[in-house]
Design goal:
single chain; mainly beta; 5-stranded antiparallel beta sheet; 4-stranded antiparallel beta sheet; 14 strands; 43% strand
Length: 203
């Protein structure tokens, strides 16, 4: 990535196709361009290049912020998307072209990861997930999408490690609590590691 042209540190830059404005431009960018709404970026992740779910997330001075598609609540702010984007002739795609704070409780986030349509974050040693839940990847015991962070059922202790992601219909999330690994979501490729081929809606 090229050095920021204005000398500003800790700023997120994106480039490439605009699919639902994960790149901060109506037409995409071939060179790195600053994302609006970010001030002091600790890390950036949560990208997904899937036909109806391109979005991105970052930790901005301890606060998780997301932008791009909000088709399944990926922005995590608990509110309807502030606008609509056009892609392949469809002008009714819910999205945000600026980084939007996720409605997490007070504290500092230390990690954020994204799947195709869902996002999980680790804050104050607790896991929170939001977005699409068709495979149980949010871990809350259901399979309905949510637009605000929800806690995976049963992870009541301190979580030291958290990860998640997926492709196609293989969205899975995992966390480590008290030295033991817990996973939930799709088990199509035996990613849950529980000795079965059954998906799980909770850890």
């Amino acid at each position: 990535v090229s050095e920021p042209r204005d000398g500003t540190a800790d700023t997120a830059y994106c480039w490439g196709d605009k699919n639902y404005n994960a790149a901060p431009s109506p037409g995409g960018y071939e060179t790195p361009t600053a994302v609006q709404g970010l001030e002091s970026v600790d890390s950036i992740t949560g990208f997904s290049s899937y036909s109806f779910a391109t979005y991105a997330c970052a930790i901005d001075d301890g606060t998780v912020k997301c932008w791009g598609a909000d088709t399944f609540g990926q922005l995590g702010d608990g509110e309807p998307a502030p606008g609509f984007c056009t892609f392949s002739g469809n002008s009714n795609i819910a999205c945000s072209i600026e980084a939007t704070p996720v409605s997490l409780p007070g504290g500092r986030a230390t990690k954020v990861v994204g799947g195709i349509n869902h996002v999980c974050a680790l804050q104050d040693e607790q896991v929170y997930c939001w977005g699409h839940d068709g495979f149980g990847q949010l871990g809350n015991g259901g399979q309905e999408s949510v637009v605000a962070p929800t806690r995976p059922a049963g992870l009541s202790g301190e979580v030291s490690v958290m990860n998640g992601g997926g492709i196609g219909d293989m969205e899975t999330s995992c966390g480590v609590m008290d030295g033991a690994a817990y996973c939930w979501g799709s088990n199509q490729n035996l990613g849950l590691g529980d000795g079965t081929a059954l998906s799980s809606t909770s850890p």
